[in-house]
Write a structure and sequence with these properties.
By secondary structure, the chain is an alpha/beta fold. Helices cover about 30% and strands about 15% of the residues. The protein starts with 13 loop residues before the first strand and ends with a helix. The model has no long low-confidence stretch (mean pLDDT about 95). Bound molecules: SN-glycerol-3-phosphate (G3P) and calcium ion.
């Protein structure tokens, strides 16, 4: 990338695969996670919510309509509301019956990208966190960035996640993992509960904005280890201020190489991206 000087520490910038390798496989599915690992991501970001039977499942939206065929599979079911069926009313086993890849560039018949991805992942379901974690078994160095998507709609998810992570760790799961959310109350609660449970995972506080975060840094550094802001107007001064407060900075979601390079140049600790490949080129100075 021309005209951007990348500082010597760029090897330390984490490549974070947003919703898995979501440019190349349907977001928050097992193939997207497998692809992110295969492409060499250092961390894989996923979004999680609770199912009706209190299982942690992967889904970005608050409803199932954009990415699944819930209206077709559960036609006539009173839990199905046009464009507004919520995952919390379905069990994990029911969610596993939903097709999660027949949309966007992955839809059967899509002409995006010359139809290259059309139907490529058919048969992919809404996975549980347990299924996702199993994919990391042979890749102990790859980290997870677990986003509690809408904790108010999944009450108790903080403790359920802690219990599940503790159980996985007891079985030998050692991958680095960070928990994050846009919701400070949930993150503060999570931080408190994990200490009580004997866990000490880094906590990330997401922000929709990237300017004037000084007050938030001060207030939220009591429980957060990292700030993960929208990259929009993120400045070198803000990154330095966060670092001074002992916080890492990992902005989202940057797919443009030039902007990725700018963020690396101002000292961010990681970049959340759909375009792992572009970020890897930037970090290699290509
Ligand atoms: O990891 C941060 C990023 O994923 C937040 O935005 O909407 O993609 O979950 P969103
Ligand atoms: Ca997310």
């Amino acid at each position: 990338v021309a005209d951007v000087v990348i500082p010597a520490h760029h090897d330390d910038v984490d490549v974070v695969a947003h919703r898995g390798a979501s440019r190349y496989a349907p977001e928050n599915t097992l193939p997207a996670i497998e692809m992110a690992i295969a492409m060499g991501a250092e961390q894989v970001e996923i979004d999680v919510s609770l199912s009706a039977d209190q299982q942690i499942i992967l889904l970005h939206d608050n409803t199932l309509s954009r990415t699944t065929n819930v209206e077709e599979v559960f036609a006539g079911d009173p839990r199905v509301v046009a464009d507004d069926s919520v995952p919390q009313l379905f069990t994990a086993a029911e969610l596993a019956t939903l097709e999660a890849s027949n949309w966007g560039r992955f839809a059967v018949g899509s002409t995006s990208d010359d139809g290259r991805y059309a139907g490529a992942y058919l048969g992919t379901h809404v996975p549980t966190l347990a299924e996702a974690l199993a994919l990391f078994e042979d890749h102990p160095d790859v980290g997870l960035l677990i986003e509690l998507k809408a904790p108010a709609l999944s009450p108790g998810i903080e403790q359920i996640l802690i219990d599940q992570l503790l159980a996985e760790r007891a079985k030998g799961f050692t991958n680095p993992h960070v928990v994050q959310s846009f919701h400070p109350d949930s993150m503060e609660l999570y931080a408190h509960l994990q200490v009580a449970a004997g866990l000490d995972l880094p906590v990330g506080q997401l922000h929709f904005v990237s300017a004037n975060l000084g007050d938030a840094f001060r207030a939220q550094s009591t429980y957060a280890d990292g700030f993960n802001p929208s990259h929009g107007s993120l400045s070198a001064a803000a990154v330095a201020e966060a670092h001074q407060a002992g916080l890492t900075v990992t902005p989202y979601t940057i797919n443009d190489s030039a902007r990725q390079a700018e963020l690396v140049a101002i000292g961010v600790d990681g970049v959340i991206t759909d375009r792992i490949d572009r970020l890897q080129c930037v970090l290699r100075g290509e």
